[in-house]
Write a structure and sequence with these properties.
This protein has 660 residues and is of the alpha+beta class. The chain has helices at residues 2-17, 22-33, 37-50, 55-67, 71-84, 89-101, 105-118, 123-150, 156-168, 172-185, 191-202, 206-217, 222-231, 239-248, 253-265, 269-282, 287-299, 303-314, 319-328, 347-357, 360-373, 378-390, 394-404, 410-426; strands at residues 430-441, 446-457, 464-474, 496-504, 511-522, 528-543, 552-564, 570-582, 588-601, 610-621, 628-639, 646-659. Among the domains are: 251-335, Serine Threonine Protein Phosphatase 5, Tetratricopeptide repeat; 347-426, Alpha Horseshoe (Serine Threonine Protein Phosphatase 5, Tetratricopeptide repeat); 432-659, Beta Barrel (Porin), CATH 2.40.160.
Length: 660
């Protein structure tokens, strides 16, 4: 009995100490196995939340994203996996290939270069080939553009293409040189300043990079300005940084005007006036600067110098500025037409960028703006559903997925319908599950069958009521089961249908409590007896369970404490442990493992106290129905009470489950 208690204690300790993400991962792998990729992705994300430092979960989530064609999201997960486990060459290779597919050739080339110089076979050879496939065309393209420029093609496109290829090949000095030349040819293309800043930062020219981004942030291109602001430090730029940016882009009126206002706020009025004066000379269309300079001159009594500036503003087409000038000059106000200016912000594009950056609340805001602008854009509607889903606002997500499945575009409609079904079923008030587990035992020369049909009510409370119909029986239909060495197999067959109502708790970290009351109807005797049962179940595991994309070691443990009134109000404790290896084959995935099973009870009945161990095999495959797997176990056991009889048993069975 002491050995049994030690085993029980070890199982309980193992159950508490194993993987907190096991429950979510088990669901994810099971759903992967039956092709329910969207639900699997949701469970993998829960696994990432439970174990954010585990690279293997990131990899499996990446593979799941690949199943649904989300290459960019898959790439990001492999990047995280590579960062968490720098020695994982497989994750690095997957990341590099996805970088190439998502137009990030420079990053792909860097990763392949690292693997080919520092990695091991077979990844080293594959990385060498992939590196050459990227590097050779880049080198050839650079030489072609160099020759074209030398032969007179000194234009924007030539310099920009050369700079782009040089950056992808990590020739940063060459890239910076030609990005700057391209921008000098077309200074209105301020997006090139964003590229130039990126290359300068990679070259450790941080101050120059900030100058380029500051010039782009206050230039004319809205998208370039937004990208530049994301790259700048969060603080407001210093005067010296404005000066450096103006050295690069001296004709940037908005940049110079912003510097002038900063100087005013700092009490440096002469310096501010000098900047405004230069603006009025170099950018006569800048009426805002002319107005501000006129106010400054007028305020200190230089009305003669201010009047020409006021006249320019009064003759201009900015009614608001003209009225401000009229107010200072004590002239009658003009009635403004109040024409609304169209918004230039591309909300949909901003939403996509927010999603990629992980700012889901910002993405939701931009998507709502995009939907208000175009209520018939079903792509936005679908993205609203996914965004609400990620933010765990399932009621809103269901609404948007329901709208998306009505899209005239087949792909959007199918994705919306699939997401709606998965989320709707997970939030339905009633949920029905059924499982069936027949098993043949050579020891008892009999087939035993176990099954349950259960419908539960999701109340949103700490407990869920349910109705249940269980079946526990065998094919030999024996009223008084024969014994082997005086041991009857009560724990294998009750020969009954058991109808009951009960309550259970939601599963939390693999732990679930339940209890039910009902009647057991013996199908051999016709007798109906009261049946009360309940208990606590703990399921924990680690490693690679069934359904994993990659093979590897796994361990799982199940501990059940059950009270059953029909066994003399007995309390039984079951423990099942498996340690083994999961293969990576998708057609027929197999687990090879070692079993250790222990059963003890409070009444110390002979049949209810035993330990057994032995090898086992479990397999599932694409040729089987959904949620089905077969088991083969060869066990050697010994009873712990009475004669301590030893026995051997060979068991064959299969598990099948459905959820509606």
């Amino acid at each position: 009995m002491r050995a049994a208690l030690v085993l029980v204690f070890c199982q309980a300790a193992l159950a508490q100490g194993l993987d907190p993400a096991y429950e979510a991962l088990s669901r994810a792998y099971a759903r992967l196995g039956v092709g329910d990729y969207d639900a699997a992705i949701a469970d993998f994300r829960k696994g990432v939340e439970a174990a954010p430092k585990r690279a293997s979960i990131r990899k499996d989530l990446g593979y799941a994203y690949l199943k649904v064609g989300e290459n960019t999201l898959a790439r990001d997960q492999f990047r995280e996996a590579m960062a968490l486990d720098g020695a994982d060459a497989q994750a690095a290779m997957e990341y590099a290939f996805l970088c190439y597919e998502t137009k990030e050739r420079a990053q792909a080339r860097r990763v392949f270069d690292r693997i080919r110089t520092m990695g091991a076979e077979p990844y080293k050879s594959r990385a060498e080939q992939a590196f050459q496939n990227i590097d050779a065309p880049l080198a050839a393209g650079i030489e072609r553009w160099k020759e074209a420029i030398e032969m007179g093609a000194d234009n924007f496109s030539a310099h920009f293409e050369l700079a782009t290829l040089a950056e992808e090949r990590d020739d940063l000095a060459l890239a910076a040189e030609h990005y700057e030349k391209a921008w000098r040819i077309q200074p209105d293309r301020r997006s090139v300043l964003v590229d130039l800043g990126r290359v300068w930062k990679a070259s450790n020219r941080v101050e120059d990079a900030n100058a380029a981004w500051l010039a782009a942030a206050l230039g004319g291109e809205t998208r370039a300005a937004e990208m530049a602001r994301e790259s700048l430090p969060e603080r407001f730029p210093y005067v010296a940084e404005f000066r450096r940016a103006l050295e690069l882009d001296s004709g940037n009126a908005e940049l110079r005007r912003e510097l002038a206002y900063l100087l005013l706020q700092m009490g440096m009025q002469p310096e501010a006036e000098a900047e405004f004066q230069r603006l009025t000379e170099t950018a006569p269309e800048d009426l805002l600067s002319a107005t501000q300079l006129a106010f400054l001159l007028y305020g200190r009594g230089e009305r003669a110098g201010a009047q020409p500036l006021f006249d320019r503003v009064l003759a201009g087409n900015d009614e608001e500025l003209a009225n401000r000038a009229r107010a200072v000059l004590r002239m009658p106000q003009l009635e403004t037409r109040g024409e609304a200016q169209p918004a230039s912000l591309d909300a949909k594009a901003m939403a996509e960028r927010s999603v990629k950056a992980g700012y889901m609340k910002d993405a939701l805001k931009y998507l709502q703006m995009a939907h208000e602008s175009d209520p018939g854009d079903f792509d936005v509607i679908l993205k609203l559903g996914w965004t609400y889903n990620i933010l765990r606002q399932d009621a809103q997500a269901i609404h948007w997925f329901d709208l998306a499945r009505k899209s005239p575009e087949a792909q959007t409609a199918n994705e919306g319908a699939r997401a709606w079904r998965n989320l709707h079923s997970a939030n339905e008030v009633f949920s029905t599950t059924a499982w069936f587990f027949p098993m043949f035992s050579t020891r008892w020369r009999d087939v035993f069958a176990y099954g349950q049909l259960k419908t539960e009510l999701r109340t949103g409370l700490a407990v869920r009521p349910y109705v249940s119909l269980r079946f526990i029986g065998d094919t030999r239909r024996t009223l008084a089961p024969e014994t082997i060495a005086g041991i009857p197999p009560q724990y294998l067959s009750e020969s009954s249908f058991i109808l009951g109502v009960g309550l259970r708790t939601p599963t939390w970290h693999g732990v679930m409590a339940w209890g039910e009351a009902g009647s057991a109807m013996g199908y051999l005797t016709g007798h109906v007896k009261p049946d009360y049962r309940g208990g606590v179940s703990v399921v924990r595991g680690a490693g690679r369970p069934m359904g994993s994309e990659a093979g590897g070691w796994f361990a799982d443990t199940t501990v059940d404490g059950v009270f059953i009134s029909r066994f003399g109000n007995d309390f039984l404790l079951y423990g099942q442990d498996r340690l083994g290896y999961t293969t990576a084959l998708r057609a027929v995935q197999t687990q090879l493992y070692w079993n250790v099973n222990l059963t003890v009870d409070g009444s110390r009945q002979a049949w209810a106290n035993f330990v057994e161990a032995g090898p086992g095999l479990r397999f599932a495959g694409a040729f089987l129905p959904r949620n089905m797997y077969f088991t083969i176990n060869a066990l050697r056991g010994r009873y712990l009470v009475g004669g301590k009889v030893a026995y051997s048993d060979f068991r064959l069975g299969f598990w099948y489950a459905l959820t509606r």
